[in-house]
Structures are given as C-alpha cells and as structure tokens.
From TrEMBL:
Keywords for this protein: ATP-binding, Carbohydrate metabolism, Glycogen biosynthesis, Glycogen metabolism, Kinase, Nucleotide-binding, Transferase
Lineage: Bacteria, Bacillati, Actinomycetota, Actinomycetes, Kitasatosporales
Region (Disordered): 454-483
Superkingdom in the source lineage: Bacteria
Pathway(s) served: Glycan biosynthesis; glycogen biosynthesis
Pfam family membership, one: Mak_N_cap
Enzyme class of the recorded protein, top EC level: transferase
Subunit annotation: Monomer.
Keyword Membrane on entry: no
Domain Maltokinase N-terminal cap residues, every copy: 25-121
Any one GO molecular-function label of the UniProt entry: ATP binding
Provenance organism: Streptomyces roseolilacinus
Name used for this protein in its record: Maltokinase
Keyword ATP-binding: yes
Length: 483
C-alpha cells in the first residue's frame, strides 16, 4: 500500500470536494476507531473508479483515505488511520437508498452529485462480486480467487456492523470488507488460507480476496468465504441457554475441542517459537503497559491497578525462574460471537483478524494458545453477567467443560498454564473495559466486575482458574507447567 496518492483514473481533486461530507459521516461509523478525537484532515492514499463516475447510472468509487487526528506521531508510520470507503456516486438517490446517504457534493469535480454508501446498493455490491469473480488488477487494487464463484448471487449487507462491514451473497458467500487498513497481510486471510491448506474444516476457507499494492506492503481489503447458512453464534446460543435456565456444558465442551483442533492445525501449518525469559518478560511488560494506557483512558480502573498488575508480575517472575511457554499463531480475539454452530451441530471459528486496534505486526506474532482460551473464558463470564441475577456457577461449569474439551482434543489442559491464563484473562478484561467505554458504555459494568474479581488475590476469586473452586480436583497446581 504505497503512501503516495496512487490514483487509477479517479482525479486526486476528489478528496477536497468529499472532505466536508466525510467529516460528518465517518466519525459516526461503528468501525471508526478514532472516536473522541477531532478529525483535522484527510489524505488520499488511493482512489479507484470501480465503475466510471461519468456514466449515466451510479458510479462506484473505491477510496483509501488516511484520517488525520491529534495524537502521538511515530517516525515509522504516516500519521492517522487509513480507512477503506466504497462510495456510490449518482445524480439522484432513489428513495429506497435514502438511509445510505452520505451527502451532496457542493464543489470540485463531483459538484451537484450525491454520494452514498455503495455497499447498501445491491447493484454496486453485485459489481464488487463481479470484480472478485474475475481475477486481475484495477489501478492499485488486485483481485484474487482460489475457485470459481458463481454469478447472479443477490447481495445483502449484514446490519450487525462491527469492526468491519460484511455482505452476504445469495446466502452462499460472505464478503468481509475491512475498514481500518494496515499494510501487510491481514491474519483474517492469512490464517484461514493456512488452515484450509492444512485441511482444517473448522474455518470457512477463503475463496476470493482483494488487496491494495503488492509485496510485504500489500494490504488485504476484503475476503470472500462460504456463508454458513443457518448457523448461530455462540454468544446468542449461550444467552438462550441462560434465558431457558439451561446449562451450556456440552456446547462448551465441544467448543473446547474445536478450539484445540484449530490451534493444533495452526501450530502445524505456521511457525511456532518458545517464549523464554526475555520474551515472556516482554509479554508481561506489554500487558502492564496496556493496563497503564487503559487506566489513562478509563480512570475507574485506578484502584484495581496493583491487583491486576500482580497477574502480569507472576508471569514475569516465572520467566525469571526459568519457565518457558510455547507460542504459535492464534486467533487473537476469540469470544463466543466468533464461534458459529452450524445446523449439523459442529462449531466453526470465524474472524481471525485479531484485535483490530493492535498493530498488524503484533497481531501476527506467535503467542501462547491460552490467549484464545482466556478470550472464551471471558465470554462465558460476559454471558453469565448479562443475565440477571448473575450466575457465576453457570460460567464456571462452562469454563471447566471448555478446558476439558480442549485438553481432550489437544493433550494440553489450559488450566495447567494457570498463571499465564490468569494474566491473559486480566489483559482481556482490561481491553474490554476500554472497548466498552468507547463503544458500549452501558456494558462497562461487565468487564469492570471482572476487573474487581481479577484484582483480588487468586484464591479469593471464585471464577478464577487459580481458585480451588474452579479447579475442583486439581488443588495442587502451582507454577505453570513448562513446555
Ligand atoms: N462464514 C460465515 N457464515 C455465516 N455467518 C458469518 C460468517 N462469517 C461471519 N458471519 C457473520 O457475520 C458477522 C460479522 O463477521 P465478523 O467476521 O465477526 O466481522 P467483524 O470483524 O466486523 O466483527 C458475524 O458475527 C457472523 O454472524
Ligand atoms: O467482534 P469484534 O471483532 O468486533 O470484537 C469486538 O467486539 C466484541 C463485542 O461485539 C467484543 O466482545 C466483548 O463482548 C462480547 C459480547 O458482546 C463478549 O462475548 C466478549 O467476550 C467480549 O470481549 C470484543 O472484545 C471486541 O474486540
């Protein structure tokens, strides 16, 4: 992804004319990561006409735009986040598309025209699939596929817009359009491709994708995968179970097995490393730094900092004492919403992007597999907390079943890496506090409750993997097992 404004047919002068509209529209998107800071300007990274803007019908404009906001400037990266935008450009917006309106352009080459969210327009969304069906380059964009994709599939945009935007085509394929673009291969393409090659059927295999630029700087822009029709995500299923007063033990056990299968396949397909003293200490330091940054962003964390930090210090101390841990490529943001139960009762895992707020290099680094385990354990806690009254024992049974399933399928029980598991749970809860404060303030109480528990000494925390209660029958486990 070259930083010099590489344009393909679309005039560079477009951006100044669009800037006033983007100024209003962009910060209100769910996927806009720079909320709370003013937007001071835009810089064009690339502009590509996927359908000519001069035609009688709507045009389709693909933009990569860097959004300038106040903040620390690093010498290695240009300032501001880069976003992918797909804009429809027309003379008169049909009433059915009025919710997609971005605004009317008053100056520059598009003066008098209307700009709207192209992905909401089935004609333009269909055109994007057409581009993916025929591999090749258009300006700085290149389109790739592994198998033939049928044509004539009707598109619909998923309304549960999260970190990105997804389109479903004919209930057969789902196209994820990444919003915040980083140079380099996105793990949401890299890992499913590697898993497909390794024969792991737990993850839908990419069938097509598109990217900007080439080589190590090439950025993944979108990935097309089979759509698992009729599947339900683990979060919904867990909430249903809670609402019906049902256990989720068999499902949690099966999900533990599925997670272990994915981890085993990733460890076979991609490099693994051993985290020795320095790396493990760096990991604990990074967690500690994230805690500091989170406390600056959400001062309510302040009273719990010493207790939370203790979890990271335990890992650092174990490393100093010679403990080592195995690290491999992991999911990186695993929670119940990323696990889909298909109609045949199997768990599939989606969304390997990792935490979108972290730099790509960090997300692609080998990490201990318990990091993902901690993500799911946090999710059981979230589910139990969203039901009143809180059911800690429901979450506890899920946690045990999940870890048992994982151990059965992998031969490695995550509870044997208890200090690391607790550190990752703590790190995740801290991340969640910031995430909820930014995106869903009503939910802040959920990770804050976990923070209060995790900040207390391990034995005093009933939901902790370190407590005698959660580890019934495994009381003597103290330092992590060495790999
Ligand atoms: N292969 C798939 N089959 C069925 N539904 C899917 C598939 N991939 C994603 N989804 C649905 O789309 C939603 C968003 O996908 P996800 O990859 O989590 O995007 P985001 O990064 O925006 O969170 C998921 O919550 C899930 O409901
Ligand atoms: O799905 P994303 O990759 O966008 O992940 C982000 O959003 C998630 C919420 O949608 C958030 O997950 C948190 O809330 C979930 C319940 O809605 C819960 O199951 C997770 O355990 C909890 O972390 C995730 O952290 C965030 O990165």
């Amino acid at each position: 992804m070259s930083e010099t404004a590489s344009t393909a047919r679309a005039p560079v002068a477009l951006l100044p004319s669009l800037a006033p509209l983007l100024h209003e529209w962009l910060p209100r998107r769910r996927w806009f990561a720079g909320k709370g800071k003013p937007v001071t300007g835009f810089a064009l990274v690339s502009a590509t006409e996927l359908l000519p803007l001069s035609a009688a019908g709507p045009g389709l404009l693909h933009l990569l735009v860097r959004v300038q906001q106040p903040g620390p400037v690093t010498s290695s990266a240009p300032p501001g986040d880069c976003y992918q935008l797909l804009l429809g450009v027309c003379d008169t917006l049909p009433p059915r598309l009025s919710p997609a309106l971005i605004g009317h352009v008053t100056r520059g080459p598009l003066a008098g025209r209307t700009v709207y969210e192209a992905l909401q327009d089935p004609r333009l969304a269909a055109l994007l699939l057409e581009r993916l069906r025929s591999p090749g380059a258009i300006g700085p964009l290149s389109f790739h596929r592994t198998v033939a994709v049928p044509d004539g599939l009707t598109p619909r945009v998923l309304d549960a817009e999260q970190s990105n935007t997804s389109l479903v085509y004919g209930d057969a394929y789902i196209l994820k359009i990444f919003r915040r673009i980083h140079p380099g291969a996105n793990p949401d393409l890299e890992l499913p491709l590697a898993l497909a090659r390794a024969g792991c059927a737990r993850v839908p295999a990419p069938v097509a994708w598109f990217e900007a630029g080439t080589g190590p700087d090439g950025a993944t822009l979108g990935v097309l995968q089979p759509y698992l029709r009729g599947s339900r995500d683990g979060w919904r299923l867990a909430l249903d179970a809670l609402a019906g007063g049902r256990d989720f033990v068999p499902e949690a056990h099966a999900l533990g097995r599925a997670t272990a299968e994915v981890h085993t396949a990733l460890a076979r397909a991609l490099p693994t490393v051993t985290l020795a003293r320095r790396q493990a200490r760096d990991l604990a330091v990074a967690m500690s730094r994230r805690l500091d940054a989170a406390t600056q962003a959400v001062p309510a964390l302040m009273p719990y900092v010493p207790g939370l930090r203790a979890a990271f210090e335990t890992v650092a101390a174990l490393a100093e004492g010679g403990s080592t841990w195995r690290a491999q490529r992991v999911h990186g943001d695993l929670h119940l919403g990323q696990a889909l139960r298909t109609p045949d009762g199997e768990w599939a895992v989606i969304d390997f992007e990792g935490e979108p707020s972290k730099p790509l290099a960090e997300r692609r680094r080998p990490q201990p597999a318990v990091r993902d385990v901690a993500g799911i354990l946090r999710s059981f806690d979230y589910a139990a907390h969203s039901h009143h009254p809180w059911h800690p024992e429901w979450a506890e049974r899920c946690r045990d079943a999940y870890c048992s399933g994982y151990a059965e399928a992998s031969g490695r029980d995550p509870r044997d890496e208890q200090a690391l598991l607790r550190a990752y749970e703590t790190d995740k809860a801290v991340y969640e506090v910031v995430y909820e404060a930014r995106h869903r303030p009503d939910w802040l109480r959920v990770p804050m409750a976990a923070v209060r528990r995790l900040a207390s000494p391990p034995g005093a925390d009933p939901a902790s993997p370190l407590s005698g209660r959660a580890l019934s029958g495994r009381p003597g486990l103290s330092p992590d097992r060495r790999s």
